[in-house]
Amino acid sequence: GTSISTKWRAPSNGLVKCNYDASHHRGNNDSGLGWIIRNCNGTFLDAGMGKFQGRHSPEESECSALIWALQSAWSLGYRKVEFEGDNLIINQLINNNRSNERLYHYLRLIHNWRSMFDTIKFTHRRRDSNNAQTF
């Protein structure tokens, strides 16, 4: 696929943007996750990549990536952040304060971390259409 920077949009004034993503693999296969923080000019500030054991669904993988991004951004001292991911379901659940039985634990954690930031936004970005993983 193309790199995450191809259609990058600048964050709102005064915010940094954290793009996060997870590659989902079921069961015992490792899934990958990562995040990258840039300022309003698109300048690279921080990033992290990691592996975790497979979750049950792409949504759970995406929540795991977001929680790690939230914790990392906060521990690095960022307090005004826009978190952008490519899972529409997750963004709708967070922004509409909806609950979801299977994602309850994840959403509660995200909600708790959300309150630690001064300004926080959750936005959705479509996964590039030429990416191998389409839903």
From TrEMBL:
InterPro entries assigned to the protein according to its UniProt record, in alphabetical order: RNase_H-like_dom_plant (IPR044730), RNase_H-like_EbsB-rel (IPR052929), RNaseH-like_sf (IPR012337), RNaseH_domain (IPR002156), RNaseH_sf (IPR036397)
CDD domains cross-referenced by the UniProt entry: RNase_H_like
Span of the signal peptide: none
Pfam families recorded: RVT_3
Residue ranges constituting the RNase H type-1 domain according to the UniProt record: 19-131
UniProt GO molecular function: nucleic acid binding; RNA-DNA hybrid ribonuclease activity
Domain of life of the source: Eukaryota
Matches recorded under PANTHER family: BNAC02G40300D PROTEIN, GB|AAF30348.1-RELATED
Name the UniProt record assigns to this protein: RNase H type-1 domain-containing protein
Organism: Eutrema salsugineum (Saltwater cress)
